[in-house]
Design goal:
7-stranded parallel beta sheet
Length: about 180
């Protein structure tokens, strides 16, 4: 039995935003914490060393060396099932945090929601601004379950409310990072 806080982050481990989020937020806490990062393969050697050095458990979301990877519909389905199984092997998380709200990331989090006390979804820009209304509606089942939804600008806030439900207002947290 561990008293460490268990965090699952679903996002691209090659992203400076995720690396800095882990570095500046979680690693500065004065608390025992276990961080799991569900990601595609880490191509940046410096980031890979950072994750390894800091004990970040990597959950890769792609079956390697499979011929199925060349058939798009099967590739998506097989990778989804493979990743979901890897996520569920850890049994329980205090928080599941989706960085960059893609349909697949939100679906993985939604399918794992019973394994977590809280879910958070962070929109980073193009995941909301470049997608159409139907994409946002597809991820609403996950957004409904989220304890918090973070985004960066008032424009993103207004667009999310226009595309979804006004009752998300109490879940939205605007974190500007100096952009607005």
């Amino acid at each position: 039995w561990s008293l460490a806080l268990k965090i699952l982050i679903i996002g691209d481990g090659n992203s400076i935003y995720i690396r800095n989020y882990i570095k500046n937020i979680f690693l500065s806490w004065d608390r025992e914490i276990e961080i799991y990062l569900c990601t595609i393969r880490i191509r940046n050697a410096e980031y890979l060393k950072f994750y390894e050095r800091n004990g970040i458990a990597l959950i890769y979301c792609q079956v390697r060396g499979s011929l199925i990877q060349h058939i798009p519909i099967f590739k998506t389905l097989i990778n989804f099932i493979y990743t979901l199984n890897k996520i569920q092997q850890n049994r329980y998380y205090d928080v599941i945090h989706v960085h960059f709200a893609s349909f697949i990331s939100c679906s993985l989090a939604f399918a794992s929601r019973k394994l977590a006390k809280a879910e958070i979804c962070s929109f980073w820009g193009s995941d909301l601004l470049r997608h159409r209304k139907w994409h946002t509606r597809l991820i609403m089942p996950f957004l409904d379950k989220c304890s918090a939804i973070t985004l960066e600008t008032q424009l993103m806030h207004d667009l999310l409310i226009a595309r979804t439900k006004p009752n998300y207002e109490n879940k939205i947290r605007k974190i500007t990072f100096g952009i607005e």
